[in-house]
Design a protein that fits this description.
Layout: E1 18-32, E2 37-38, E3 42-43, E4 47-65, E5 74-79, E6 82-83, H1 88-98, E7 108-116, H2 127-145, H3 151-165, E8 177-180, E9 194-196, E10 209-213, H4 224-230, H5 237-257, H6 260-279, H7 290-306, E11 311-314, E12 320-324, H8 329-340, E13 349-353, E14 359-360
Parallel strand pairs: 5-7
Antiparallel strand pairs: 1-4, 1-14, 2-3, 4-7, 4-8, 5-6, 8-9, 10-12, 10-13, 11-12
Helix pairs in contact: 2-3, 5-6
Bound molecules: ligand DP6.
Length: 361
């Protein structure tokens, strides 16, 4: 599909005066990372992620026809019950990018009520869950105009719109594993939207666990926009993008053949490569904290001692995602509470697992 296929061309908004839609959309954790993009939000390499289950954003979109039509956007954001002005510029930018595809957004006034299941300043990015939830609400409006929309088109366009708000949000519409970015291994993959992993997922990866250790709950030191931009002049960029695409092929096989050892190795290498890109950019950044490294050492030690398949991955921050198969749940949970949470801010961590994607409430 091309961008043109996502332009809503003919619609009649006369009969839709107002309404409300609510969607709950999950966060996701990349196994092969997206880091580097070109305009408009086109990834430099393909990425693949587990959709999460418990970390999600719930967004209610109230809309009513403007009394005096104008070209601008009429948006109010209410975050966790309070009027929030901080999110508005990002949402306005998002609306500017998507207006071409859903022109009705200039005809309505919107109240966006949104809340996260995870603590606000937890260092967990809410852009993937937040923007996908909003994109889904907007698609529900499009569906009123065009009741013939297939579920497939609905999901693709929701992911397409979400991507224009935040790249990784393209991976938050469906579950349990999503591929975003054109790749030879997946004939239906696209740079424009995420697709559900199309092959059989080995039972080893069903209900895969992700416990998120909150090492540093502060504001992100490197915004994702800044981070992605650092890849433009980066001396290792080309090699990284090629490696990312090779790792997608490897991960495609691993997810089907259930090779947990290869999974562990690939996922950790991806996490460290992401951070290596930041360590070697200009300007350079160290986003891990000493407790991040202590946790990693503990995980490696535990893995060796217990012949475990536990591993870690990281986002662009200090928090550690501890990934492990469902069958190791009891032992690893005991290990986390006994040995790892001491390295978390206020002992805080979140238990999550791979989930099935967004749903409408
Ligand atoms: C490190 O999706 O937050 O989490 O497209 O600028 O909104 P924007 O970036 P964003 O980048 C996520 C980067 C990452 C890796 C990943 O999720 O693949």
């Amino acid at each position: 599909m091309t961008e043109n296929d996502f332009v809503l061309k003919k619609y009649n908004s006369n009969n839709l005066k107002k309404g409300t839609f609510t969607w709950r959309s999950p966060s996701n954790i990349a196994l092969v990372k997206y880091w580097g993009k070109s305009e408009p939000q086109i990834p430099k390499n393909t990425s693949i992620s587990f959709t999460l289950n418990n970390c999600h954003t719930t967004t209610t979109l109230e809309f009513s026809k403007k009394e005096n039509p104008s070209n601008g956007y009429d948006i109010q954001v209410i975050f966790e019950g309070l009027i929030n002005k901080d999110f508005k510029p990002k949402i306005i930018k998002f609306f500017e990018r998507i207006e071409k595809y859903i022109p009705f957004i200039t005809e309505y006034g919107f109240v966006i009520k949104t809340e996260n299941s995870f603590p606000h300043s937890s260092g967990i990015a809410s852009s993937a869950s937040g923007l996908s939830a909003l994109a889904l609400c907007l698609m529900s409006i499009e569906k009123v105009f065009n009741t013939n929309l297939t579920d497939d088109y609905f999901n693709k366009k929701a992911s397409f719109l979400a991507r224009l708000g935040s790249g990784s949000a393209a991976r938050s519409v469906e579950g349990e594993i999503v591929v975003w970015g054109k790749h030879d291994d997946f004939s239906y993959s696209s740079d424009l939207y995420g697709i559900k992993f199309p092959n059989n997922i080995h039972v080893n990866f069903k209900n895969y666990k992700d416990s998120i250790l909150l090492v540093d709950k502060g504001e992100k030191k490197v915004s994702s926009t800044l981070g992605h931009n650092l890849m433009h002049e980066h001396p290792f960029a080309k090699a990284r993008f090629e490696q990312g695409n090779k790792n997608i092929s490897a991960m495609n096989k691993i997810l089907q053949n259930g090779d947990l050892k290869a999974f562990v190795q690939l996922v950790e290498s991806e996490a460290l490569t992401l951070h290596a890109m930041m360590l070697t950019s200009n300007p350079y950044f160290i986003l891990m904290k000493s407790n991040t490294l202590k946790i990693i050492e503990k995980i490696w030690d535990y893995r060796k001692r217990n012949q475990s398949n536990i591993c870690f991955t990281l986002d662009a921050g200090a928090n550690v995602h501890v990934l492990f198969p469902e069958k190791e749940n009891d032992q690893v949970n005991a290990f986390i509470t006994n040995e790892l949470i001491a390295f978390c801010q206020n002992n805080q961590y979140i238990c999550d697992k791979a989930g099935t994607g967004a749903w409408q409430l």
